[in-house]
Structure formats: structure tokens, C-alpha cells
Amino acid sequence: MKLKEIQNTFRTNLNGAYENEEIDRFFYLLIEDYYGVSRLQLAMNPGIEIENSKAILDALELIKEHKPIQYIMGETEFYGLPFKVNGHVLIPRPETEELVEWILNCHSEPSEESRKITILDIGTGSGCIAIALAKNLPNAKVYALDVSKDALKIAKQNAELNKVNIEFIEADILSLCQGEDISKSQKFDIIVSNPPYVRELEKEMMNHNVLDHEPHLALFVKDNNPLLFYEAISGFAKTALTENGQLFFEINEYLGKETVDLLEKYKFKNIELKQDIFGKNRMVKAEINS
Fold it and tell me: What architecture is the 88-287 domain classified under in CATH?
């Protein structure tokens, strides 16, 4: 079957559900992944045929069900690095890359102290934040915590894939006794987290590919307690951070003021609310008030 015929099948089946550019993006990603044929190669030789079209047509059916292309392919890219993903972990977002960039910019001085920092990523999921930091701060000691065994399994694979050493911790940050155990054994210069922050009331604004396929455990919080994880992590950070240690959060764009107020309640200093490239409140940084 000719690839151009399959491309027309994609356009016919997905018309109305996705824009043409998005449909073609799905198609080109899949033919390169499944058959090693690039967009340029197909443009130069539109008569290319494949013997087994089942894989890509099966993928088409999954796309029609709004399954994210990253889950279909089992991989994605974050901060220039390859990552395995499945339904147990969130697909890394560009906004989270901005959070990583902010942390790296805050620790770009080539001093011994900055190069030997200790970092804890809470709610690591695929491991994208921890691994990107470890890759770009090779002398840092990085820890990554998650409550999900299945998420940690993927994160460990991604650490191996990207050739970084990370100490993984299976724990629930909402359980204070476990948090205290961690902070007694190790202090951290940086604690970073992209915890669940989407309120139930915001579900109606979400696309089906997210709502129907990405793990709700990593996404949603109750409307009446949307800062549940931020409160737990802030309390933990008060004892787990080193002197002048920093806390970084990715946040709900609608709860920027509330997140800052929470950090002020816990007596953090130098609190900074930062917008993403779309002008939305997306990140916050605070320092321990020792």
C-alpha cells in the first residue's frame, strides 16, 4: 500500500476532529517511527509503498478515539531528551520545560556549591523534571519521589535511557511520617514539584485526549481543597530544605495569588510568581526563611 494513500485515509477519517496540519503531523510522526520514512523522503518519492500497513492503521483507530500520539508511539521528547511514556504518567508539557529552564538559570554559576547541589522532585511521573535537571547539572545529586509504582517504573527506564543517576523514592507526600523520614535522612538545596492542580470544575475545559487517557491521579484535586499538595510540600520543605534552599512549583494558572499566599503563610521569603510564554501564571519560586 502506498504511504500517500494512507495519508489520504488519515485525512478522510480525521477530518473535522483535527486540523489538517495536526493530521499530517500525526501521519509523519508515525511513518518515521514505524517505517523509517521521513517527511522529506516521502515528498521526494511519493510512490513509496509499505508491505504491512496494519500498525499505522491501528494507530489511526486509536487517534480517532483521541488517544494521545505520544502514548500510541510510547515516547516523546522533553527538554531535548527522549522519554518513554504510557498511561501511567502525564505527557510532559512545554510549560514544564520552562520550569526546568528557570531552575537551571538560577543555578548557572560554575561554582562548586552550585554544581554539587541536592535536588528533590516530588511527584516525578515520567521523571522528566528530575532527569532534565540531572542531565544539565551533572554533579548534582537528584532524588525523585512518586506515590505510583507504575510511574516510577517508567521514570527508572527514562533515567537509564538518558544515562543519569537518580535515587527514586516510592512515597506519598501527603503522608507526613514518610516526609519526615525523608527529610531526616537528607536535606535538599532545591525541591521542585509539578503536583496535581487541576480542579474538578475545570474538567469541562479539557480536551478528550487528556481527560480520557492521562492519569487522573496526577491531574486532579478536589474543588474545595485545590492546594492540598502545595500545602503538604510547603510544610515538608520547611524542614527538608537547606539554609537558603529553594522551592519551585508549577501551578494552576488560576491560583497564582492563592499559591503565593500559601507560601507567605509558611514564612517563605523572596517569593516570585512567573508567567509562561503564553502570559499565564505558571511557576513560583520561594526561598527558605532560615
Answer: 3-Layer(aba) Sandwich (3.40)
